[in-house]
Amino acid sequence: MSGPLLNALRDAVGADQVITEGDLSAWELDWRKRFRGKALAVVRPADTAQVAAVVRACAAHGAALVPQGGNTGLVGGSVPDTSGTQVLLSLGRLNRIRAIDKANLTLTADAGCVLQTVQEAAAAQGLLFPLSLAAEGSCTIGGNLATNAGGTQVLRYGNARELCLGLEVVTAAGEVWDGLSGLRKDNTGYDLRDLFVGSEGTLGIITAATLKLYPLPAAEMTALGACDSMAQCVQLLGLAQARLGAGLTGFEVMGRFALDLVAKHFPQLPKPLPGAAWTVLLEQSDGEGEQHARALFEALLEQALEDGLVSDAVVAESVAQSHALWHLRESIPLAQAEEGLNIKHDIALPVSRIPAFVEQADAALLERFPGARLVNFGHLGDGNLHYNLQAPEGVVADEFLAAHEAAVNALVYDAVQAHGGSFSAEHGIGSLKREELVQRKSPVALGLMRAIKQALDPQRLLNPGKVL
Ligand code: FAD
Fold it and tell me: How many A from CA of 418 to the centre of ligand 1?
């Protein structure tokens, strides 16, 4: 019976923060609208103590909990199942910046802080929090860490994991682990922080984090290059790394069809290098200033033109132009959504294997599914591609997906595996890729993961059915 549990939850957070009626789709439907669940209640605690009280109430009543931040995850991890028995734990009210230590270059924030709020709090102190992704206006630090989010600057600063020095976590038993360390060195036993980062809400509830900050660069500058082949894009990456070193903060690639979709659905956006088979976006951060950054970019692109790696290039003339170029890149997922349902793959490969992978996977897909439209873009500098497929023109997308999604996935993931890659680079496992994990992870790795889950959540109440 849910009555006693609901009463215990109301005692924990106040009756007005336990929502059981009305339209709950903001919490029950995932961002891609592929997973819709039914929650027993949406519970909105205000602080760590209330989160712990909620977890203890759920544990006492044997009720499962689904933690949720901004609900921007792309693998169905943040929504409940359809049983109507799971408690949706929304962390959005844990939204305080707790501290900024300028000398230590750290910021401590509640887990429900929106990523953009954290970036702005750092910038207000003349500092940089470099995690950046298109969902930054609504995703939360807790969700970023729970999914080990990547984004556009991984090449220079690493994933969310590398940007996190400490965590505060509510365990499955409702205890609070205060691991909010601002230490860059601490070898005192197993790394509990790294266990919770990337665990997608299945091992504990992240309630706060201490994050690494960096000095704000004196200048940031963006350029585009037009390449004829993926092999040229990879060679350009090597040249840019050699010339710019740690100054190269982003290296994104966009296939022609991906940008054609942007042009179709957002015709007001610029088309800087029309017709390029591959458009590369390079981002540079410079400690010395704009003139220095521009000179470095111009020398790099002249060399690339001379070496035949690019056929054309542009350097943004202003911050507004840089934003416009990034906006093109960030509009690709939205343009794809406008075009209709599609099959997404968020894959990682050794950079050196990407040209061969793309050539082989493209050919195999087009042979098996003639007319399929391949949308290829992503963080090439990190070896991470969003290698997606849109149904052939004129074919009803849902019917195509229902008939062919499993075969498309098998073909793509087999090719990824053959090239030593990962079938989930950034977005995690959630519900969407759980079966893939079981099939593709080694039995030893799966056994270790199950043992960790059993040790930390023996009642299996934290986000059951996700990841494992
Ligand atoms: P949610 O979606 O709410 O949750 C995600 C998972 O984390 C769920 O399993 C949930 O249970 C768990 N969780 C959430 N909060 C907590 C917590 N406090 N404690 C424990 N578990 C928790 N991802 C990238 O990595 N790189 C990108 O470039 C990128 N770009 C994106 C662009 C768009 C337009 C969109 C919509 C998404 C993008 N994503 C990207 C995916 C998504 O934004 C990230 O996964 C993000 O980190 C999720 O944060 P969230 O707060 O929305 O988490």
Answer: 28
Instruction: Note the pLDDT tens digit of each residue in 118-153.
Output: 999 999 999 999 999 989 999 999 999 999 999 889
Question: Rounded to the nearest whole angstrom, what is the distance from the C-alpha of residue 143 to the centroid of ligand 1?
Answer: 5
CA distances from 362 to 367, 395, 405 (A): 9, 19, 16
Residues 85 and 101 placed together within one structural domain of the fold: no
Stated as kind and residue range, the H or E segment containing 235 is helix 230-244
Average pLDDT of the segment spanning 149-168:
95
Question: Is 62 a member of any domain?
Answer: yes
Q: Which two tokens stand for residue 77?
A: 């991890």
Spatial CA neighbour of 100 closest among 135, 128, 73: 128
Q: Which of 333, 348, 368 lies at the terminal end of a domain, its last residue? A: 333
Q: Which atom of ligand 1 is nearest to the CA of 379?
A: 28
Boundaries of domain holding 113: 97-215
Ligand 1: residue of 30, 32, 78 to mutate (most ligand atoms within 8 A of CB) is: 78
| Nearest CA, atom 38, ligand 1 | 135
Q: Answer yes or no: do 434 and 405 share one domain.
A: no
Q: What share of the chain is helix, strand, coil (3-state, %, to 5)?
A: 40, 20, 35
Q: Please report whether residue 410 resides in a domain.
A: yes
Specify whether 227 is located in the same domain as 327.
yes
Confidence at 419, pLDDT banded by 50, 70, 90: very high
Indicate the pTM of the whole model.
0.94
